[in-house]
Structures are given as structure tokens and as C-alpha cells.
Specification:
Elements: H1 15-27, H2 47-50, H3 57-65, H4 72-89, H5 95-115
Bound molecules: (2R)-1,2,3,4-tetrahydroquinoline-2,7-diol.
């Protein structure tokens, strides 16, 4: 039977290593500032009603530490949630909206490069 454990890739790097590498690069990106910490819904009118599933990079960091991601796919779903929430709440040409598009493009490019 196919083992449940992440497939060891030829570089001996498993999916969790890829998640940690990607998260480190997202956290240190110059345009990551809108996404580093949870949005305080009390201080942002409308946010709680509009954004059904808040997510941010510090929460993703915590979920990795608590082994809450079973695979790269579940990690990717949360990263995409960060940027989908951003698109829902911010105009594309706003400072935060532009940062969201830059960060999403960066994530997708680096994920593809690391999986090659
Ligand atoms: O003007 C503002 C003020 C606060 C926030 C935003 C825009 N967008 C973020 O997605 C959520 C927090």
C-alpha cells in the first residue's frame, strides 16, 4: 500500500521542509507586511462579516509548529486563503491589494521552483 508518510523526494527533502522554506521566504518578503499578523476585526469595520476565514502568516507558522498540515497541499490552501481574503477586502490598485498580488505571484513561482 502507498505509505501515508510524505514521499521522500530525490533531494531527501520532504513536503514539510518545502512548507518551512516557503513560509520563511514569505515572512521575510518586503511586501509581506499586511499578512504577518492576524487582522484585528474590532479595529477594521466590515472585516469580520466579509472575511469568513481569516488567515495570516503567523497563524500558518503556528500550525506548522503544531503539525497541523498533513501535506504541502493543505499548507498551500492556507497560503492561498491569505491572498484570497486580501482580494476580497482590498481594491486591486490599493497598497495592500498590490502587495497581495505580488506575494501570491512570488509564492506560486517559488513553490514551482522548489518542486522541480
Ligand atoms: O484600509 C485598511 C485598513 C485595515 C485593513 C485593510 C485596509 N486591509 C486588510 O486586508 C485588512 C486590514
Amino acid at each position: 500500500p502507498v505509505s501515508k508518510k510524505a514521499k521522500m523526494r530525490d533531494g531527501g527533502t520532504d513536503e514539510l521542509d518545502v512548507c518551512q522554506q516557503l513560509l520563511g521566504e514569505l515572512e521575510t518578503h518586503q511586501d509581506a507586511w499586511p499578512f504577518l499578523k492576524p487582522v484585528n476585526p474590532k479595529s477594521v469595520p466590515g472585516y469580520k462579516k466579509v472575511v469568513k476565514k481569516p488567515m495570516d502568516l503567523s497563524t500558518i507558522r503556528e500550525k506548522i509548529a503544531n503539525k497541523q498540515y498533513s501535506c504541502l497541499e493543505s499548507f498551500t490552501d492556507d497560503v492561498n486563503l491569505v491572498f484570497d481574503n486580501c482580494e476580497r477586502f482590498n481594491e486591486d490598485d490599493s497598497e495592500i491589494g498590490k502587495a497581495g498580488h505580488i506575494m501570491r505571484r512570488f509564492f506560486n513561482k517559488r513553490r514551482a521552483e522548489l518542486l522541480k
